[in-house]
């Protein structure tokens, strides 16, 4: 249990600090903060690109740590979150070119495609993990929290995919990208906090029932 709580606490800390670093890195881009893709903060020409990349690594680490904290609850969620963290690390290691051009409206380089693909897979797997906890978790607090965040995240992510494919780069897509990423990040922090504070949240269902009866 101590290890589970440490993992949960680490997930919360890494998520909060990583998100703050990403926001700090984006604050010096030439364009207004709400314009352009978030990934542009990691371009080598960005004044704080290492701060941004470090933030992404920390957010990726928070996914891995949350997976470790939940490994006794729903084993496959642990595997999904660890995999998501791996793709997040790839996203941090391989930056896009200036402007982060994406198809079908812009000509992309191989690094652009690797970065974008890794980022999308990481977010998508985080959504799968969230949905898994919402559907399977026997811990009521974790299940309710996941359902709320998932219900908010799903339409935003669907709208973002539509924006990327139908509209391409623009203010609508830029703002929506930032808004759509808030619920998944919030879920990681909130779930980690619940596990940290609830002594039965990270245990197996059988042990959780024993703890409650005790």
Q: What is the overall silhouette?
A: globular
> Helix/strand/pairing class, anyone?
mainly alpha
DSSP, total strands: 0
Fraction of helical residues: over 70%
Radius of gyration: 18 Å
Q: Work out the helix count.
A: 7
Q: Strand count, sense and closure of the main sheet?
A: none
Strand % is under 5%
Terminal CA distance: 16 Å
**SSE string, helix = H, strand = E?**
HHHHHHH
* Average pLDDT figure: 87
The residue ranges in which pLDDT falls below 50 over 5 or more consecutive positions are: 201-214
Structural overview:
The chain is mainly α. Helix content is 72%, strand content 0%. The protein is built from 7 helices and no strands. It has helices at residues 2-26, 49-69, 75-93, 110-136, 140-166, 171-197, 205-213. Helix 4 (110-136) packs antiparallel against helix 5. The protein is globular and about 50 Å long. The two termini are 16 Å apart.
Gist of the model:
With 214 residues, the chain is mainly α. It has helices at 2-26, 49-69, 75-93, 110-136, 140-166, 171-197, 205-213. The protein contains seven helices and no strands.
Secondary-structure map with pairings?
Layout: H1 2-26, H2 49-69, H3 75-93, H4 110-136, H5 140-166, H6 171-197, H7 205-213
Helix pairs in contact: 1-2, 1-6, 2-3, 2-6, 3-4, 4-5, 5-6
